[in-house]
Specification:
124 residues; mainly alpha; elongated
C-alpha cells in the first residue's frame, strides 16, 4: 500500500505543480488553477505560521509514506525532491525555494489576470 501511495503522491503532487505553472493558459483550467494557486499560497504562508514557511500538507503526507518505506533525510521542499529525482542532481535548497516562490508569484499574477479578463468578457 505504501508503494502505491508513494507513486500516487509523486504523480498527484507533480500534476498540481503543472496546474499551478501552466493551468492559467487554457480557459478550461483557469479557475481550477487559480483555486490551487490560492490554496498553495495559503498553505505556504498561513499554515506556514505554525508549520514553517512553504508548508504543504501533501508533502507532509508524502514524507510520512516515504518514511514508512525506509527513506530518510527528505528535503523540506517537494520541489527540491522533484528536481533532484528527475535530474539526478543535488540542487541547493535555497535556490529551489527562491525559484518556487518566484514561479508561484508569476503563476498567481497570470492566473488572476486571465481569470479577470475572462470574467469581464462574460459580463459583456
Amino acid at each position: 500500500m505504501y508503494v502505491f501511495l508513494d507513486k500516487f503522491f509523486f504523480v498527484f503532487h507533480s500534476a498540481l505543480i503543472l496546474l499551478i505553472l501552466f493551468g492559467w493558459i487554457w480557459r478550461k483550467t483557469r479557475l481550477a488553477s487559480l483555486i490551487v494557486v490560492l490554496f498553495t499560497g495559503f498553505s505556504w504562508t498561513i499554515l506556514g505560521i505554525w508549520y514553517g514557511f512553504g508548508y504543504c500538507p501533501f508533502t507532509d503526507w508524502h514524507w510520512q509514506v516515504r518514511i514508512k518505506l525506509g527513506h530518510s533525510n527528505m528535503p523540506s521542499s517537494y520541489t527540491k525532491f522533484l528536481i533532484d529525482s528527475l535530474t539526478g542532481l543535488d540542487v541547493r535548497e535555497q535556490f529551489v525555494d527562491t525559484l518556487a516562490v518566484i514561479l508561484l508569484a508569476v503563476a498567481l499574477v497570470a492566473s488572476v489576470l486571465t481569470n479577470v479578463r475572462d470574467w469581464r468578457k462574460r459580463r459583456k
